Amino acid sequence: MTTRAPVTPAAVAQPNPDELALSGCWTALGMGALDRQLDALAVSRQAQVVVDGARVEALDTVGVWVLQRLFQRLRSDGVAINLRGWRPQFAKLLDVVAQHAAAIPVRTPERPALERIGMATAAALEEIFALLSFVGESALALTASLTHPARLRWRTVLHNIHSAGFSALPIVGLLSFLLGIVVAYQGAEQLRRYGANIFVADLVGWSMLREFAPLITAIIVAGRSGSAYAAQIGTMAVTEEIDAMRTIGIAPLDLLVLPKILALVIALPLLTVYADVLGVFGGMIMARAQLGVGFEEFLDRLVNAIDLSTYLLGIGKAPVFAVIIAVVGCFQGFRTHGGADSVGRHTTRSVVHAIFLVIVADALFSVAFSALDI
Amino acid sequence: MQGDEKVDAAVIEIRNLSTRFGDHVVHDGLDLQVRRAEIFALVGGSGSGKSTLLREMILLHRPDAGTIRVLGADVQSLDEQDALALRQRLGVMFQHGGLFGSLSVRENIGLPLREHTGLDDELIDEIAAWKLELTGLAPETGLQYPPELSGGMLKRASLARALALDPELLFLDEPTAGLDPTSAAGVDELVKKLRDLFGLTIVIISHDLDLLWQVVDRVAVLGEGKVQGVGSMSELAQMDHPLIRQYFDGPRGRAAQPQQAGEKTWNQR
Q1: What is the pLDDT of residue B266?
Q2: How many pairs of residues across A and B have Cβ atoms under 8 Å apart?
Q3: Residue A138 has pLDDT above 90, yes or no
Q4: Which of A75, A100, A125 is the last residue of a domain?
Q5: Same structural domain for residues A263 and A368?
């Protein structure tokens, strides 16, 4: 048994110059490319045309629409149209659409390129201003909370430290360990050529402690936690939970943003220390395997080559990165409006913007440190 | 609108239908018939299996036993292609619209046409704009995205998409729920208009007593896994079954009913 009624394609024949004989299924499925064929029909020199619908098997609104378009074109050429042989229900449908077909504006939203560039620029500027004002609001809320520490939601802070910090230990550890291996491995070949094997400790120490550990940690946390913040707050915004919070008299900034900023400011430096340790450990293993530099030798050299300030500079960047990640994630969450689609879009944005800003900040740190000569 | 079909045939025929979710029995030997070109409503309390029945009729859920014939096809024995062909003859308006958030309203309405026909883009846009107008929305609405629309507009846009392929059978899930009285009255009118224009068969799930009294031809009351009563609203109002009485004897049931019933008899005299 089948439900597939055979669809005879719609067709039009012209037995006489002043007669159009239609046949087949004039429906969305049977229409095919007939539309273009109709546009090419040459009946414009006739005074009137008979349209014979006796062999039309089925007719739906798409078919009627196409026919009405044809009729309108013919009428505007001064051709009168006589319908012949149509089934009553088809004739009725033709009538109904004729009343509707009069004017349907199909507006195309195409804007000139210059205007689109302008609108994109205005939107970008608007977002920057909104971000700045969000930073301002958060800073105000933070100072207010820090002057009344009892008002801070410490339980939420601890919960956030656990989810953003402790749970990130495996992935941060593994990746910085691998990064340490890669750095030592890449340097090994060059160092061996100059017989400067022991300097692998300088290489790994400087690069890991000062740049790579803070950066890789920040990037992982931006991907793990920044996106989660945006998605959580974005979903709450879409489901009106944020509005509900405001009407109950809880400031969303206090409950949703401050604990996240504080938690990340605490967790990210700790994660960075952990990444330092595992990165250097990875470098040590590679140094022994490739360059024959033993652990003891390596650590000896590391302590002499790297001073405390290098280590502290690396860790000092972490709180700044933490603020960037938390603020950008929460900001994108609050920018969400509309539907589920918007949540996804803003979550993606939060990650991209956070990583971008973290790297920009890192570059600025490098410039500042070299200017200060530290 | 197929020209050569019998007018009186049953469009939907359900026999001895059973559905279970684990131990929970939803339908237990349910029988139901929907005739061509009628406006048919399913009512019943929460958990009475209305929505499940709807899902089974539109091929989204497979019943455990019994047969469902939709437009002459036994839905359980369909292969992929026949199921697709049947789906193209059904239109469904979901309770929350089910519009795709990443597409504009016009693209939403044009999607079935774009997917299943070889029509020109320009023609599809025109037809989408017309369907939009048919459901009472302004042409500019077509350029907006679903999250920007109000509840009433969303339902109308969803209806416009359901109508895109000129279905023979239209399912409306709670078409007036969450609408203000004016919009709800607009939907009432629209449903009647569609039936009269295109000869559609329309199946509605609704609790809206005004809609039931004014638009619907026949109503089936579901309860305890079966159809407890079928008939026009005035026929149902005469029945004694407790589950049906609940519908008419609540304060809302009484408010919607006597006035209109009274008016009707008055006019007939």
Answers
A1: 42
A2: 110
A3: yes
A4: A100
A5: yes
Residue type, A263: A
pLDDT tens digits, one per residue of A41-71: 766 667 788 888 888 888 888 888 888 888 8
**CA gap B131, B261 in Å, rounded:** 34
Q: Are residues A92 and A200 in the same domain?
A: no
Distances (CA, A) of A174 to A168, A265, A276, B87: 10, 22, 12, 51
Q: Is the pTM of this model over 0.80?
A: no
Chain-centre distance for alpha carbon A252: 24
Flag whether pLDDT at A252 surpasses 80.
yes
Residue type, A222: A
Contacts 24+ apart (CB under 8 A), B210-213: B210/B184, B210/B185, B210/B256, B211/B41, B211/B175, B211/B176, B211/B184, B211/B187, B212/B41, B212/B43, B212/B256, B213/B256, B213/B257, B213/B260, B213/B261
Cβ contact B29:B38 at 8 Å: no
Most confident of A80-94, A172-186, A334-348: A172-186
Q: Look at residue A21 and tell me if it is in a domain.
A: yes
Residue A18 Cα, gap to closest chain B Cα (Å)? 26
Same domain as A187, residue A38 = no
Same domain, residue pair A172 and A43: no
Determine, yes or no, domain membership for A326: yes
A121 assigned to some structural domain: no
Please answer yes or no on whether B89 and A106 come within 8 Å at the CB atom.
no
Q: Which of A100, A116, A151 is the last residue of a domain?
A: A100
Measured between beta carbons, which residues in chain A are less than 8 angstroms from residue B193?
none
Probe site for chain A from B11, B99, B119 (most A CB atoms < 10 A): B119
Count of CB atoms within 10 A of residue A82's CB?
11
Can you read off the two tokens belonging to residue A266? 């605490």
Q: Residue B151 has which token pair?
A: 């509840």
Chain B residues touching A65 at Cβ < 8 A: 123, 126-127, 130
User: Do the Cβ atoms of A334 and A134 come closer than 8 Å?
Assistant: yes
Residue A114 lies in a domain: no
* Chain A neighbors of B7, CB-CB under 8 A: none
Selection from B44, B198, B36 nearest residue A58 by Cα? B198
Q: To the nearest whole angstrom, how far is the Cα of A292 from the nearest Cα of chain B?
A: 58
Distance from CA of A104 to the nearest CA of B (A): 7
Q: Which helix (H) or strand (E) holds B99?
A: none
Q: What is the domain range of residue A265?
A: 137-372
**Chain B residues within an 8 Å CB radius of A57:** 3-4
Question: What is d(CA A282, CA A298) in angstroms, rounded to the nearest whole number?
Answer: 12
Q: How many distinct structural domains can be found in chain A?
A: 2
Q: At residue A3, does pLDDT exceed 70?
A: no
Task: Please judge whether A105 and B116 are an interchain contact, meaning their C-beta atoms are less than 8 angstroms apart.
Answer: no
Relative orientation angle of helices A113-147 and A308-335, to the nearest 10 degrees: 110
